[in-house]
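A reminder from the course coordinator: this example appears on the midterm review sheet, so study it carefully.

Given structure:
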């Protein structure tokens, strides 16, 4: 039977790519029966015999790493299929090899992947490893191949048809501008806060071009430097008088603290209201906002209520948000169907008034949230994760 042939052939492959292909190929077997009857008459099926559209449907789900380093080297037909723009609709920097449960063949979900917490140091290591293998495997001169060149070369493979994009936390401005010029069909976008802090005008321009945007994730981070950037903004002038606890001094990036604190006036250029205003004007299908791990200020809450009152999904997990501000959100965003406020600081998980106001929300969770009014404690907890 063709099923045994195809699955058996794939089972002999030891690489993760083939394990993924084995999990994904079943939905297309009926197409193989009708279009390639000769497959059932051979002793050893060949990947070359699979129709191109079936290959594309399989490869578009295997992830960036496999598309770059594995699929093109299986055979010529897989190489051609790996270049199809449909395989590059989902640009997740950096995807990992643990997004699929191989025993249950359960695929990762776009929302879960694009809303993943971003650790800049981990991202950097994975990115460098991927780029190093790419340069070596494709015999590229690495002396003239930069981060920007690598990111833009991958984005260019989508030919403007990318629908999901998660940029690395260290994405250069030049690469961000290129994304804004090419990727106008995005439905899901994940941006590290570093880009919001340092390239807010480019981000606003990018979002203004994404007419189909439905999901925006302002990716969480446990990187000390980035957290201090947003923390200094949230605390304003009072941040100058905060005695940074000793627990932070032994962490990565601690030596940069003196260089970050004086730049509060520059950091203040990050304005969530300006970004949400672009969404309100240009993104009519927008429904999902993720601000996990953020220090959510009063002005941020008012921006959400005034500009996105019809938002359906709001993810605030591990954020710092004052109790009164959360109540304002609940009163202003009455169409919420999901609110994830787990492990937050600023309100208590057992708050009765919050529970009553959130009773109309189909999926509301605030387990692990604590009524702690000290943002510094939130910062210390964030760093220690």
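Designed residues:
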């Amino acid at each position: 039977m063709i099923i045994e042939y195809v699955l058996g052939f794939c089972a002999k492959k030891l690489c993760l790519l083939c394990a993924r292909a084995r999990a994904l190929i079943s939905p297309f077997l009926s197409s193989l029966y009708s279009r390639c009857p000769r497959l059932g008459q051979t002793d050893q099926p060949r990947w070359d015999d699979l129709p191109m559209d079936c290959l594309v449907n399989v490869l578009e789900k295997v992830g960036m790493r496999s598309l770059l380093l594995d699929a093109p080297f299986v055979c010529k037909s897989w190489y051609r299929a790996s270049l199809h723009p449909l395989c590059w609709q989902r640009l997740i920097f950096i995807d990992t090899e643990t997004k699929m449960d191989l025993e249950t063949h359960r695929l990762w979900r776009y929302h879960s992947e694009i809303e993943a917490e971003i650790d800049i140091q981990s991202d950097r290591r994975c990115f460098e490893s991927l780029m190093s293998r790419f340069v070596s495997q494709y015999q590229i001169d690495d002396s003239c191949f930069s981060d920007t060149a690598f990111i833009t070369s991958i984005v260019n493979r989508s030919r403007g048809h990318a629908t999901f994009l998660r940029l690395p936390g260290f994405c250069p401005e030049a690469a961000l501008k290129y994304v804004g010029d090419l990727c106008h069909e995005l439905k899901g976008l994940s941006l590290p806060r570093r880009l919001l802090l340092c390239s807010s005008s480019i981000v606003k321009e990018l979002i203004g071009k994404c007419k189909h945007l439905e999901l925006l994730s302002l990716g969480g981070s446990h990187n000390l430097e980035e957290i201090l950037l947003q923390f200094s903004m949230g605390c304003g002038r009072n941040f100058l008088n905060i005695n940074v606890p000793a627990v932070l001094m032994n962490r990565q990036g601690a030596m940069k603290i003196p260089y970050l604190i004086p730049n509060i006036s520059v950091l203040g250029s990050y304005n969530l209201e300006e970004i949400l205003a672009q969404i309100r004007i240009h993104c009519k299908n927008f429904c999902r906002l993720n601000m996990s791990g953020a220090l959510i200020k009063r002005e941020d809450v008012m921006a959400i209520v005034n500009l996105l009152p019809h938002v359906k999904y709001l993810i605030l997990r591990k954020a710092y948000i004052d109790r009164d501000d959360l109540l304002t959100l609940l009163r202003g965003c009455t169409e919420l169907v999901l609110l994830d406020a787990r492990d937050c600081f600023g309100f208590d998980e057992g708050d009765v008034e919050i529970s009553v106001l959130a009773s109309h929300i189909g999926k509301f969770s605030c387990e692990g949230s604590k009524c702690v009014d000290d943002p510094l404690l939130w910062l210390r907890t964030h760093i220690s994760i």
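Residues 1-15, 24-33, 96-110, 233-269 have pLDDT under 50 and may be disordered. The chain has two domains: 2-88, 111-384.
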